[in-house]
Amino acid sequence: ENHQKVIMEAGKYTQELNAALSADAEAKVLEELKADGCNVVEVTDLAPWQEACSKVIEENTPAPSLFDHYVW
């Protein structure tokens, strides 16, 4: 039970750290793209994209619910 608690806490910490590192890396890449003259469009309303992609995702993703959870 004690080992499980430690493992769960480590997993939570790792998840938070990974999210922060990913956000920093994404921000850096976006700034590099902008500096190189790329037009970067920030999408704030994902709903139309989700709807447009839903059939393709459903047909080509082994676990669409996991895709929805982790990507959208």
Outline, from the CA principal axes? Answer: flat
How many structural domains in the coordinates? 2
Mean pLDDT: 92
Give the biggest beta sheet: none
Question: What pattern of helices and strands is seen along the backbone?
Answer: HHH
Account of the 3D structure:
This protein is an all-alpha fold. The chain has 2 domains: 1-39; 42-72, no CATH class. Helix content is 76%, strand content 0%. The protein has 3 helices and no strands. The protein has helices at 2-35, 47-60, 64-70. The model has no long low-confidence stretch (mean pLDDT 92).
Brief synopsis:
76% of the residues lie in helices and 0% in strands. It has 72 residues and is an all-alpha fold. This is C4-dicarboxylate ABC transporter substrate-binding protein.
